[in-house]
Amino acid sequence: MSIAELGSIHHAKNINLVFLIMLDNFFNKLSKAITLTEADKAIFRQHVSVKRLRKHQYLLQEGEVCKSVAFVYKGMLRSYLVDKKNNEHIIQFAPEDWFISDLNSFITEDISNLNIEAVEDSELILISKAAHVYLETAVPGFYKFNYMQYRGAYMSLQKRLTDMFMLSIEERYTKLLSIYPDITQRVPQHMIASYLGSTPETLSRVRKKIFVKKD
Amino acid sequence: MSIAELGSIHHAKNINLVFLIMLDNFFNKLSKAITLTEADKAIFRQHVSVKRLRKHQYLLQEGEVCKSVAFVYKGMLRSYLVDKKNNEHIIQFAPEDWFISDLNSFITEDISNLNIEAVEDSELILISKAAHVYLETAVPGFYKFNYMQYRGAYMSLQKRLTDMFMLSIEERYTKLLSIYPDITQRVPQHMIASYLGSTPETLSRVRKKIFVKKD
DNA sequence: AATATTTCTTGATTCATGTCAAGATATTGG
DNA sequence: CCAATATCTTGACATGAATCAAGAAATATT
Hints:
Two copies of one chain form a homodimer.
Chain A: H1 3-8, H2 12-31, H3 38-47, E1 49-53, E2 58-60, E3 68-74, E4 77-82, E5 88-94, E6 99-100, H4 103-108, E7 115-118, E8 122-128, H5 129-138, H6 140-166, H7 169-179, H8 181-186, H9 189-195, H10 200-214
Chain A binds a DNA duplex through helix 10.
């Protein structure tokens, strides 16, 4: 649903207000890294759209091309892969203020093997490929933002791979608990297990062990 | 050794020539993604240095801050971590035409937990932190190059994590063989095992199994 | 060429974690 | 509020890969 469409339906005023509030969050996120002028914000307003997803609905299913980058205003999404044995492997969680997409598919326009699904009812701001390309030239700060975003994402992923190599499941779990207590509480444990590269049973046993320790 | 220093020692002409040849490789690498003017190249010549490393020498040892990004002109480096049990875990190989550093330490200037070591006698072009910052503004194309470099590195790492989740050691090994036959031949097998998140013994058995299949 | 060092292979054993199954608990929807 | 569904726990067992150890092969060093 683009802003143009929003303007044409009932209660346009309220819905526009919601749209503007959502965008404010988005601008705040960008403003932590770059400076945005009012003119910049106006350009964004014309080039992004919003989308609502109920729990279990998909933003992207494997086999499709990833057509947009999503900024999560409300709710939470997850991206995951399904292997030959039908096991899910979670790549990323994206709660409020995070971005999510299949960058590879988005850039190359190849078919994605990733699923991106709402873990909760969610509200998103979407930036299409065309908009993304346009915005990077129209708003130079956005180019800079993405530069830092990619660099940061690379460094985080490096850390995650390091943890996979260096830490036991127990250590990885307690680390996740301390860094993202929020996510670990909002998401079923079997998804945490999947994110950590383990199984629900094993994580359950790890938790039992941790809680015995603390008593 | 900076170009200025190079100019002041014996056989300056020859050494300068080597320096220029090394830089040409570096410029070719950049030119695959961006356009470099002669003026740009001149700026680079003034802000990068060269370094030779004999096999087993370090570019970076854990506990130090990563002070430069290295472009490998000749030879090969590896970056790796050492865990509590003194096992090495290889993060990256960097043969000719690749870059290597601990990006995290380089950016944040925090102490690195990574070791970067020459696997073969190597010749490098080094870009210091100050030079890197300067070059990104003095040569806008370099900023753009790094944008793409980080984005690409992120996508590659995503694939590697995916492979760790989805593929067996055997599959990961054959995939590595097909994508980087070069690296797998130049490096001892126990390092390949480490890169794949396995042990020398297990990789040896995997290879045996693969070769039996092919007969 | 000879010796030392590194690398690779193979067997025996151990161990962590996955798998399967069943029941308990919690959550959601009519 | 009850039924249906999803989630979590626990036990028994299987299995893949790590570990330990020793010898073979290859490579480097003098």
